[in-house]
Design a protein that fits this description.
Layout (H helix, E strand, L loop, with lengths): L3 E6 L8 H4 L10 E2 L2 E2 L2 H8 L4 E8 L2 H5 L8 E5 L4 H9 L8 E5 L7 H11 L4 E7 H7 L8 E3 L2 E11 L5 H10 L6 H7 L2 H8 L5 H12 L3 E5 L12 H20 L1
Parallel strand pairs: 1-4, 1-6, 4-5, 7-10
Antiparallel strand pairs: 2-3, 6-9, 7-9, 8-9
Length: 261
């Protein structure tokens, strides 16, 4: 399967963003990372992947975001909705959109073509897929990192800010996202929204992640799967100062290694 549309969520939360302002801007997506505006990194990675035919960047101030992105006929920058769910609903309702749709975020600064290809190739058969990283894999690579972990039977996982929606049938999942949007970092809220039995099964670690997703999928009438990423760095985004310092260090290390080759 090829010819996917990538949606890059580059909006800002309401109110003052102290993190962005500490880096000389009022928009998080424009925070410099590795010498360039953060949003440019995932967009460049998407444009370099053979799976992606079009990239749509969604932001409240598209003219400012577009000004820092590469010129490419496959790239469009357009206004976002007031919330993530509204933004996704509007984009997915566009009759011109090409499915499947890959969703990621402007703060996914370490995203590269290998991660994209890994996720797309292993999610193509599902109706909805979400990228995850298992706790042990990431801590082996970055022992001191701090992430949000959701624990199930068999392991603890962090999201990797990559989602696949195969067709317009995924609208029911976007509606569920809307219901828990304010707490999207807290996976327990999503499980509770699907029913006490599912919530308790996960809370007591009686369910594995795959079992929980199968039950969620059954409620939605969709095949929902998790894709455990081969590269654990897929779980690292830039959401706070410690993340920024970590990503800068990783990029500097990569550049140093490349210079020795």
């Amino acid at each position: 399967m090829s010819g996917w549309t990538a949606l890059v969520l580059a909006g800002s939360r309401p109110g003052r963003d102290a993190f962005a302002q500490s880096h000389g801007t009022d928009l998080k997506a424009l925070i410099p990372v590795g010498g360039q505006p953060m949003v440019r990194r995932p967009v460049t990675a998407l444009l370099s992947s053979g799976w992606i035919a079009a990239v749509r960047v969604l932001a409240q101030q598209p003219e400012r975001i577009g000004a820092v992105l590469p010129a490419d006929p496959r790239l469009v920058v357009e206004p976002s909705g007031a919330t993530i769910a509204e933004t996704l609903e509007r984009a997915c309702a566009d009759p011109a959109i090409a499915w499947p749709v890959l969703v990621t975020t402007a703060d996914h600064a370490l995203l590269d073509a290998a991660m994209i290809d890994d996720f797309c190739s292993r999610s193509a058969e599902a109706d909805i897929a979400l990228a995850i990283v298992e706790r042990r894999a990431l801590l082996q690579r970055l022992p001191a990192t701090r992430r949000t972990w959701i624990r199930f039977g068999g392991g603890a996982y962090s999201g990797a800010n990559l989602f696949m929606l195969k067709s317009p049938r995924a609208a029911s999942a976007i509606e569920l996202w809307r219901s828990v949007e304010q707490d999207r970092k807290k996976g327990w809220r999503l499980l509770w929204a699907m029913g006490p039995a599912l919530f308790l099964g996960a809370a007591l670690r009686l369910l594995t992640l795959d079992q929980a997703l199968r039950r969620i999928g059954a409620r939605l009438g969709l095949d929902v799967r998790a894709v455990e990423m081969a590269d654990p760095l897929a779980a690292v985004d830039v959401d706070k100062p410690d993340d920024h310092a970590l990503v800068e260090a990783i990029l500097a290390e990569r550049q140093s290694l490349e210079g020795r080759e």
